[in-house]
Amino acid sequence: MILEHTINKGSQFLKKQNISSHELDAEIILSDIMGVTREFLIINNHVNISKKIIKEYDLAIKRRIKREPVAYITGKKEFWSEDFLVNYETLIPRPETELLIYKIVKFFKNKKINILDIGTGSGCILLSILKELNFSRGIGIDISPKAVLTAEANSKNLKLFYRSKFKVVDLDKFNIGKYDLIVSNPPYIPSRDIKNLSADIANYEPLIALDGGIDGLDLIKKVIYKSNHLLKRKGLLALEIGYNQYQRVSRILRCHGYTEMSKECDYNHNVRCIISTKVRFF
Known about the structure:
Number of helices: 11
Largest sheet: 7 strands, mixed
Helix content: 40-55%
Strand order of the largest sheet: 5-4-3-6-7-9-8
Distance between the termini: 69 Å
Structural class: alpha/beta
Radius of gyration: 20 Å
């Protein structure tokens, strides 16, 4: 079958299932199977495709029809201009998380710092920061062994293996080192709201990385409390938070002796990142 026809066929199948990104998804899936760029597909749209590739493509499209995210079908997601390996044990990196990284990199530019990433998942936050801060080192922790293996694989792919370490450990039991920066994108969705998430998220992404408890703040509170003991003086705590949580998280930070340095809004003007420093040590 001609390449252009193959993409159109896949796109139409997805469109009939009300998948709004049907054309983009069809192109990304086929380019991944063929091992080429999307640009190649556009330029060479009259190339014939083998039956083997069409069979793989049809299976992948069926997975997408069931609302499986494209990133899990291809096994990777672009973030901070790099491809990160992802799987069912890791959240799929989101564009809004890049806002947090942008702020951090700007603050620590040309500095040598020690970083802790709590709930590292694929390692995308820690590794993206290390990519920009050439003199720095960091450790990422997660309770999922498979997530940690994925983060280690990403660190090797990005040639950051010697400046990063990843450990399988519960935050409650982690007491190693002092850090100039603690960063976390913890679970922050209230338990009652999980059922309202899109099928792409609710049915495939790891619940443990989404569910933040009754008010969505369980893990955020734990990260703030634990950072009391792990953050250096004048160090920064950088948190990604959920919709409409800014006032409550700010209050918790103040109660624990932090002062806000910066905040960042997403494209809908919701505060999604808070960067604070410790001003009061107990």
